Known about the structure:
Its main location: cytoplasm. There is one protein chain. The chain contains 14 helices and ten strands. It has helices at about 10-15, 20-25, 45-50, 60-80, 90, 115-125, 140-145, 165-180, 190-200, 200-210, 210-220, 235-250, 285-300, 335-350, and strands at about 55-60, 85, 100-110, 130-135, 145-150, 225-230, 255-260, 275-280, 305-310, 320-325. The strands form two sheets. Strands 2-1-3-4-5 form a five-stranded parallel sheet, sandwiched between helices. Strands 7-6-8-9-10 form a five-stranded parallel sheet, sandwiched between helices. Strand 6 (about 225-230), helix 12 (about 235-250) and strand 7 (about 255-260) form a beta-alpha-beta unit. The protein starts with 10 loop residues before the first helix and ends in an 18-residue tail after the last helix. 6-O-phosphono-alpha-D-glucopyranose (G6P) binds near residues 109, 160, 161, 362 and 366.
Amino acid sequence: GDLEKGDFEHFMLKEIFEQPKTIEDTFRGRINPEHTEIVLGGLLDVLPKILKARRIIIIGCGTSWHAALVGEYLIEEYARIPVEVEYASEFRYRNPILNSEDVVIAISQSGETADTLAALRMAKERGATILGVCNVVGSSIARETDGGVYTHAGVEIGVASTKAFTAQVTIMTLFALKLAKENGRISSGLYLDLIKELSEIPEKVKSILVKHPHIKEVAAKYKDAINALYLGRGALFPVALEGALKLKEISYIHAEGYAAGEMKHGPIALVDDNLPVIVVAAKDHYYEKIVSNIQEVKARKGNIIAVVTEGDTGLTSMVNDLFEIPKSHPAVSPLLAIIPLQLFSYYIAVMRGCDVDQPRNLAKSVTVE
Length: 369
Ligand code: G6P
């Protein structure tokens, strides 16, 4: 059950390994048995409003904010509706311009985060339609919103979010495709292909998880790092942010996630033969750009760990270590690319003797400001 560790040493590890099931639980019932339609029941009443929205603003904190960023890339790419992503803590106090043509979506595992709830209430007062993507059924955010979608990740106990994140990203993917279909911005061929791609994710996640011994070996090489830099582009940029957050939360190694193109504007100054640089380099239309970033890091003797698409042998000679993920459409690759990064952080934290499930100073849910 969700409340027992079973054969796992920590809840976090158990929750990482549950992801093939939790991702499937999250899209089951939302994709029809023929794999031809996406059905998001909790949004039915508000769908016309969303399709006409002046803009969609997605708010959240921590890991949920990263899922929101993935949503931004997917919704804008496929549905062509303008999206903004904001930290709930900023949004609530900065007197944002909002009216009844705006849709504000809160992403929150717990549904109780104080900043997110307060930001949502403020948006409602200003006339926006408010929606929730929550994991905890009946939580405050789920109750106060005009509609929403539950992630079906089950109870998450590890303070560092893993299965809730991939469930949130699954919802963002379904949501983007649904909007794209409804407003005619996606061809039916691509729509069907992407539903199929999503339905194949659980098996692909399994195939990454079985390679955990390799990830553990790589983790052993980097466990004494002082700093780490994570780079990605497009929808894999938020994956880099989330990878860095996982490492800093549980291992206390200072880690930064960066959009790879921004590296030259600051973080490149940190690169030396001591710095692990984790590059999310799956095959997509940014690939050539990310290869250039890898070359820039290599020229400065950084230690490169790359997340690459299986069969991509081109990078082998350029990087120190590789985590392979199965080939997939870029729309769904965030769900795969994060898996090795979760395990990498987990093993490093365990090797450093950290309390993985209860990291210092952090709480599972921050219900006070
Ligand atoms: C805390 C947790 C994080 C979580 C964040 C937002 O910081 O430690 O794991 O991402 O809150 O929580 P929420 O429940 O709103 O998703």
